[in-house]
Amino acid sequence: MMFASPNDPGARSSERLRAHYEIERRLASKLREADKAERRRLYATVYDELFRSVPDHPQTTQRVDAVNRAAAVARQLGLLEAYLFRESTFVEIGAGDCALAFAVARRVALSYGVDVSAEIAKSENPPDNFKLILSDGSSIPLPTNSVDVAYSNQLMEHLHPDDASDQLREIFRILRPGGVYLCITPNRLSGPHDISRYFSDTAQGLHLREYSAGELCELFQRAGFTDLTAIVGRGNRTLRVRAGWYVAAERALAAIPLGVRRPVTRNALVTAALGIKLFARKPTADTA
Question: Does residue 12 contact residue 56 with C-beta atoms inside 8 Å?
């Protein structure tokens, strides 16, 4: 039997999906059971092992699909372009193959890609104003108040919850006052979104924690961010709203019994529309 989903482009046999699932469960257990000092070392080794052990992992196969790769970059640039200027410094946390960071480099003064895996970030001929930085999963070795725009896409859910809080504080630290952070992550209400989707009702793989928008807003506020707004919808049909309104609607959805809610939220269009796209700003001295 063959399967395909938004998270697994193309078709893979049930045997290959099961093999992927078991590898992720084993690697995720290492991260969940490790203390913070161990995790600083483990993130890199875990993800390098994942991409070596699962050659048909979507993040690997997407690299050779030039059309879909270009379309994905264009969609992300559409969300970011209002904040990108020639003098800007940009950082993508969890840059993966760095395709977006390379594209942004053509529009800004300096573009950074931060990742834990040298394996997935391998690339040839990067732009002169691009720099790759390997991270331990929570720290971001950039100067304080040095970045105008920070971005992550499908990253937050891969972090141990303790490391997610630490990384948010790091993003806040490196942003200049008035700088913005756009975080895109799947919504727990329509999950799980990792390979567990085929085998479990909860994330068992390398999505160490999937969040609701309400939970994520609380984390952002504790890190010091203000002016939280959410992008609701998908494709060209999106609306920017105050995060509080989105959270209120999410809570109403969460109140629906799981048996009624699950078939609706598992629909691909609904899943995409529910995906969290949260803009946050570091306050300036005048608004802090």
Answer: yes
**In the prediction, which pLDDT does 2 show?**
29
- Split into its structural domains, the chain has a count of 1
Structural domain of residue 185, as residue ranges?
A: 2-281
Is residue 34 in a domain? yes
**Residue 117 one-letter amino acid:** S
Low-confidence ranges of the chain (pLDDT < 70): 1-10, 63-64, 118-124, 235-236, 286-288
Q: What is the pLDDT of residue 239?
A: 83
Distance between CA atoms of 206 and 213, rounded to whole angstroms? 20
User: Is residue 288 included in any domain, yes or no?
Assistant: no
Give the Å distances, CA to CA, from 1 to 58, 68, 179, 195, 205.
18, 25, 48, 16, 22
User: Under a CB-based contact definition with an 8 Å cutoff, are residues 285 and 177 in contact?
Assistant: yes
In a domain, 210, yes or no: yes
Question: In sequence order, what are the residues at sequence separation of 6 or more whose Cβ sits closer than 8 angstroms to the Cβ of residue 46?
Answer: 27, 30, 31, 206
Does a structural domain hold residue 286?
no
CATH number of the domain within which 233 lies = 3.40.50.150
